[in-house]
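Lay summary. Proteins are chains of building blocks that fold into shapes, and those shapes determine what they do. In this project we predict the shape from the chain. Here is one chain we studied, written as its sequence of building blocks.
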Amino acid sequence: MSSIPTETLIGDPIESQAHLLHVLKDGKTHSFKLMLNGGGYSRKEIYVLANGKYDLHNCIDDTWQTLGAKQLFMAKHTGLLNEAIKAGSLIYDGTN
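And here is the predicted shape, written in a compact code that computers can read:
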């Protein structure tokens, strides 16, 4: 298992679920690009709510989801987010 990077820069891939949770722990809204086949991408914005749940904004269709930590990585709730992490296709795009 790889260690969590101490610093995540714009353009860095998210390497694991633990890495994503580490990035989100500062309470800011973070933006990510989920790279798609053919060179396109889907932008996601995620931030932690005061109750410990996560707000996920799917920018492509302007939908919002409020999810628990387990739901954040379940395909039926977030599409291919976990698969994108495994493939190195979830790219950090900074804070908003």
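What the prediction tells us: Strands lie at 30-35, 41-48, 54-58, 63-67, 90-95.
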